[in-house]
Design goal:
By secondary structure, the protein is α+β, with helices and mostly antiparallel strands. The protein contains one helix and nine strands. The chain is elongated, with a radius of gyration of 30 Å.
Length: about 190
């Protein structure tokens, strides 16, 4: 290398190229780490949201099963139950249909309107909604039933049911797994015949 005089100070093209190359490598590594961290955070948020969705719907179904009086239809992926609220009766149906949890409610003006199933009374209000989409139960039934002697078949007589296990799973976008939750609920339905 040659000596530089006072007026030729600065960096050579080779020095600048080396520094730019090093900065490009460091920037690429840093960007890769930031992108990986952002993707991980996004997946974690999606898993948390799916878990919260599943928990909310399992709790709603479990609460209705606990206070149901009586259960009307008990199938592996469908249950129909009566709920008494004040002087009215709400007949609610939970059903797992094509990867979504569907809920419908028919409100009747009096308790006696729900005395028979299926009833001939006309409801004062009817509502239907999809409470949870992207369910991933697959071959796992939404509901499994137990009686006093143990497990019951997939569609038992409603009067024989003493407890119900609710199992609900939801697929998580951008993640290979599912958010899943199970809970067992005792019902007061057993003495109704």
């Amino acid at each position: 290398m040659r000596n530089r005089s006072g007026d030729e100070s600065g960096y050579t093209l080779v020095e600048l190229t080396v520094v730019m190359s090093i900065m490009a490598v460091v920037s690429s590594l840093t960007a890769g780490l930031v992108i990986t961290g952002m993707n991980s955070t996004k997946q974690s948020q999606a898993r948390t949201a799916a878990s919260q969705d599943v928990q909310r719907e399992v709790e709603r179904l479990a609460r209705d099963l606990r206070v149901a009086d009586p259960l009307r239809v008990t199938e592996a992926n469908r249950v129909v139950l009566d709920l008494y609220r004040g002087n009215t009766c709400v007949r609610r149906t939970y059903e797992l249909v094509a990867n979504s949890l569907q809920v419908s409610s028919a409100t009747y003006p009096t308790w006696s309107a729900c005395a028979t199933y299926p009833g001939s009374a006309t409801p004062t209000a009817v509502q239907s909604a999809t409470f949870l989409s992207s369910t991933a139960n697959g071959a796992t039934p939404l509901l499994t039933y137990k009686g006093t002697a143990g497990p019951l078949p997939a569609s038992p007589a409603p009067a024989t049911v003493t407890s119900i296990t609710v199992t609900l799973s939801k697929s998580v976008p951008g993640w290979q797994g599912v958010a899943s939750l199970s809970t067992t609920v005792g019902v007061r339905n057993a003495k109704i015949g």
